[in-house]
Amino acid sequence: MPRLLSTLVVALLLGAAMQAADEPPALAKARTLYNAGSYDEAIAAASDVRSTEWVAAAQMVIARAYLDRYRRTSQPEDLVAGRRALVAAAGAALMPRDRVDLLVGLGQSLYLSDEFGAAANVFDNALAQGFLLNRQDRLLLLDWWATAEDRAAQARVNDRPSRFERLRIRMEEELRRDAENPIANYWLVVAARGGGDIQGAWDAAVAAWVRSCLFSDGADTLRADLDRLVTQAIIPERSRLQKDADAGRALRDQWDSIKEQWK
């Protein structure tokens, strides 16, 4: 799994308080605290929201804070509390961005419970509303979806090819729209390799390395992830397929040459 591309290390931001001018100060404070990673304080601030109109939105902040705290501490009670807050928010009227946050929270809760296929389905629902997110948050959500698809494929042999094909198709579509999408550049390589197309994975890795020249930021992280994937997985697998004792060394030289040419 990539170091910084993965949203298992970075949380999606909750919707900003500018959604409505009359949002209670306690809720605006809770959102700010959550986005700063101060989960205990965010839970406390959101718990102070008393307005019936905004209680569901406050429950969303509480839910996401508990889930992210669970990722830090692995305390089961945080996961349980996060689920309860999601259920409390689910039946209420929410602002459109809060509905996306609810879907993300539901998907995260499923993922953290090892229900990877179900999590991927829910993240897919959230991606359908991706126009409500800024670019960075949408990239993080895309990475959540891709990670869930990958974990589901690894856990279930029977539908592994179809899941990697689904992952590959979506990443190809993402790259047609945005060649500088670091998530799609990385996961297209993973999808091709996972689907058994080792040559396609090599081609995708080379293309991603070259496209990273276009990036205004994030190129170093993507290149480190690509280099690790190519040297530790793709080259050994290509070498075995070629059944040539010298193939591995030749492929490593070829990869080093590509990296040198496209610094």
What is the gist of this entry?
The protein contains twelve helices and no strands. It is mainly alpha-helical and 263 residues long.
Walkthrough of the structure:
The chain has 263 residues and is mainly α. It folds into 2 domains: 1-156, no CATH class; 159-263. It is built from 12 helices and no strands. Helix 1 (25-35) runs parallel beside helix 3, helix 7 (135-155) packs antiparallel against helix 8 (160-177) and helix 7 (135-155) packs parallel to helix 9. It starts with 24 loop residues before the first helix and ends with a helix. Mean pLDDT is 90; it is low at 1-10.
Question: Can you tell me the residue ranges where pLDDT is under 50 for at least 5 consecutive residues?
Answer: 1-10
- What's the number of structural domains? 2
Order of helices and strands: HHHHHHHHHHHH
Largest sheet: none
Cα distance spanning the termini: 23 Å
Could you tell me the strand content as a percent range? Answer: under 5%
Name the helicity range.
over 70%
How confident overall, as mean pLDDT? 90
Radius of gyration (CA) equals 21 Å
DSSP strand tally:
0
The number of distinct helices, counting runs of at least 4 residues, comes to 12
Shape: elongated
**What structural category do the secondary elements indicate?**
mainly alpha
